[in-house]
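Students often ask why we bother predicting the structure of a whole assembly rather than each chain alone. The short answer is interfaces. A chain on its own may look different once its partners are present, and contacts between molecules only exist in the joint model. In this exercise we take three input lines together and write out one structure for the complete complex. Read the inputs first and try to guess which parts will touch.
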Amino acid sequence: MELTEAIILSVLAASTPLLLAATGELVAERSGVLNLGVEGMMIVGAACAFGGAWLTGSIIIGALCGMFAGVLMSLLFAAMALGLAVNQVATGLALTIFGVGLSGLIGARFVGERITPAPHLHIPYVSDIPLIGHILFGEDGFVYLSLALVVAVWWFLYRMRAGLILRACGDNHVSAHALGYPVLKIRMYAVMFGGACAGLAGAYLPLAYTPFFIPGMTAGRGWIALALTVFASWLPGRLVIGAYLFGAVTILQLHAQGAGIGIPSQFMSSLPYLATVIVLVLLSRARTGGSTAPAALGTVFVPDR
Amino acid sequence: MQLILEKRAERSKTVALASPLIAIGLTIVTMTILFMVLGKNPISALYVYFIVPLADGYSLQEIAVKATPLVMIAIGLSLCYLANAWNIGAEGQFLMGAVAGSWIAVKTQGTGAGHWVLPAMLLLGALAGALYALIPAICKVRFGASEILTSLMLVYVVDLLLDYLVRGPWRDPQGFNFPTTAEFDPVATVPTLIEGGRLHLGSILALVVVAAGAVLLGKTIKGFEIRVVGAAPRAARFGGFNANQLILLTFAISGALSGLAGIIEVAGPVGHLQPGISPGYGFTAIIVAFLGRLNPIGILIAGLFLALTFIGGEQAQITMKIPLDVTKVFQGILLFYVLACDSLILYRFRIVSSSPQVARGAH
Amino acid sequence: MRDTTSAAPHTSATPLLQTVGLTKRYGSFLANDKIDLDVWPQQIHALLGENGAGKSTLVKAIYGLVQPSDGGLRWEGQTMVLSGPSQARARGIGMVFQHFSLFENLTVAENVALGLDGKESFKEMSARLQQVSRSYGLPLDPKREVWQLSVGERQRIEIVRALMQNPKFLILDEPTAVLTPQEADQLFVVLERLKSEGRAILYISHKLEEVRRLCDTATILRGGKKVSTCNPKAETAASLARMMVGTEIKQVKPAASREITVPRLVINDLNLEPEDPHGVHLRDISMELRGGEILGIAGVAGNGQDELFAALSGERLARDPGTIVIEGIAAGHLSISRRRKLGAAFVPEERLGHGTAPRMRLSENALLTGHAAGNMVQHGFVNTAATLNAVDRATETFDVRKAKRDPEAASLSGGNLQKFIVGREILRNPAVLVVSQPTWGVDAGAAAVIRQALLDLAAAGAAVLVTSQDLDELIEISDRIAVMFHGRLSASLPTAEASREKLGLLMGGSSLETKEQAHAADT
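Now the answer. The structure tokens for the assembled complex follow.
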């Protein structure tokens, strides 16, 4: 019982950064922009968030710093890929390479420091209900926030006119432009939202997951988040399933390592990455009849005037 | 005020040549600002970065040594990128080549094996790199899985494999528990070109690869095929070229070159297998490929330039206490500027007022 | 400049919309040069001109999509500055685009909502959509996604979307280009009704007969300038064409007699599933084409013409080799390069991106289709001199105008690039030429050169298969015409018997029984 509870709790924690980053990327991709720089935005977000929290002692200020850093990074991407019509794949790679270096530079002075991690919710009695109480009502705020965000994004995309316009830009930017929608501006906002989410996802790592910063601590989570949007067929609801599945793989391999089942730890550690490859293959294979990807995803748009 | 892009009728040749130079210039300006923010004297920092390494023979050799893997990997990547196949896992293919080639070195250690060992290591390294690169390529061609994500995921996997091998079965028993294999035997080591120097045979191989790349892309129908598949996939299909085969081919070549670079690095400058044999060569090579405008000769120059920044970065760390991460930031900024300047080849930038003018003559 | 506007009584004192000296510059290129245009309420005003005459730029300026470089617009006599289409829509200007501005993966209702300004709820909008589409006889299912719909239905969305804004002024850009003659007639009924409701319509077309039938006034553009405003009913199609082109158009001359020889291209019961889920399934296609013959394939876009082209060219392979026979050799399983070696040549519909790689030089584009046969490649190495030679020969034979010897394909005008592509293939002396939309978006001069080249090729003994949506073109050059509908190919009619009405019925898929009878009679 205790172990199950611990495992579920740690799965939720491991899934949250994936869910946050993937939700942001989903919105950007729905508008037609493929930002491969999620890993870069996350790691810079992590460094800035830790810095902010360590200097002020406030988790919330730390998280805001992380989001702000993510937005700044995403603006760099938007300036290149939208403003200058540069290939989105190359720009995203550049953003990640740049972000990894920058986070090292920013985070260097915080390495070895510790903070008090984000507190967990505690409602008297309710949170103490065995198993369910702790799982449903005993998480840190980020976990609830990430789930609320998914619902909000779903509502935005399918129930609001602005969401319809955003999806239209991702389906056919020429038509959207012809109807008078400012395609590049809409995409810029979508990319910025993606940046804020990636920054927050990065912030989660040093603020709640482990209370310290180490260079490269995102360890490919940004890339896995990118794979999750594919896994989810660009549908917000499925992101939750995907993120929790990946969180589960990560945690189970850790527990398997801890239990000492005789398989070298490196092999267990490689499971999340291998799982990503396998999931991408299985899903792409299942969708033999065309893709559900936004039709304009990753294509350059230059309006004529 | 608003920046708008106007498509040029033809790509501008002048800008194509000038764009990497403009990019380097802008990067240096940005770095100057960054050094000032870090509280370092920018003039002396730039001097340490770009001039000091050129001043002595040892550093010059070291630049060539560092440029060797960068150039070899980048040539392969340029083929992929020209064909619109996004191999970003060269780092993993590099490590896989290093691991596979080292297997022979480890197994023949102290057995007095002959001079076949090094050629066999290079061959196996290239082969392993190619096979490892073919995994994402096959996933792409056969199942439509994004090669970008799969090739990158495999970097983490082989990194862990290498870690396991040097901590486990291949660890040097006399290595004081350090995660490393024993020093390779002389027959398993890439010979140096100058007695007592650092420059090794691998650098010559890199030059051969550059020449082969230039001929392939410039003169052969295969090179044309690679370029047209990337530039206009539908037209390429109409021309009778098979994009899927080309993805497999370019990934295989790219993987083989990365794997070769990996085993040369291990059997040459490093001398044994250990974690951290690559300071991110596979990723820096992406920058090299773009800075060289996906052109073999350009890549040679770009490779030497980025090698210079590695050496300069180390110097700057030692003499001025500038963190090594500055080099990575520098490389990232450089890639941004290169891509931005490349946009000038296809477009003309124009600043216009954003509010519609009240047209004359209609009053 | 002449002005023969009939003194039709205008119901109001001022024009609804005017362009006053409207000028639009792109770099050094003048797309519109001081254009004055008056459109009155209750008027159908034709805008005529060749491709590149500046029609699209002018209507984009009226719809607020491009900003004039000089001059401007007046609306009901008042100066009007538009910063975007939503402002144009707010004034009561609606537009039906030639290349529809629709979103394939969204529903009809969502597409309509995107063309409105969102002041009503989605539910109210859907109800109004039903009502408008019913009242104008333009039925639509709001819940279907656009990719499932035919071209005609898609146009209906565009029109209903424009009508839902209750526009005073409606722009239609080449609306009949994608319709069967019968569908076009139905559209004209709707347009006449809109006119009678007091709306003004700006009607872009290059089908002169329908302009004469429908429009009250016509403004003709050439090379960015206004040439004339006239009453089309007082003109002949020939006189209108002369004003559009500026010179007399060369008539194409078929050879006096052509020798019909052996079957060169045969299709036997071709069935092919679409590669892309939005594509068309080819079903039971059979035909035989002999040397010296030109067979035209008519049909509304999206009825399997692209799929048939891909199957014939070998961009898609058939399972059974015998389904496609080129020069007596079963070729269904052969690649496009192997088919070229058998003597086949292909010209696809899309010039940029399919027929050529836009950002590559002409010599490289000659290599694109020439590498399989001939001397362009030796031992894997490219013979650059041979590729340049091919460019020079095409340039000379087909009068391709370009700025330098070997420019990038994208820098050529549509007409010149099409002449290069057709020339590139014809100069390989093909036994079979399969060509799709040979003169789509091409100026009249280039179109005449290309049609003449197809006739000459047939006269020299080749078999030519032409797919086109332009019935006039097919009637002009084909010996026989067949129609594609829903992935099936009708039996062919001799051109002399193929009236527009008959073809129109086949294009609408409405006479399948008679088609089957004809098929039985054919075999």
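Check your guess against this: The domain at 2-120+128-286 of chain A is CATH 1.10.3470 (ABC transporter involved in vitamin B12 uptake, BtuC).
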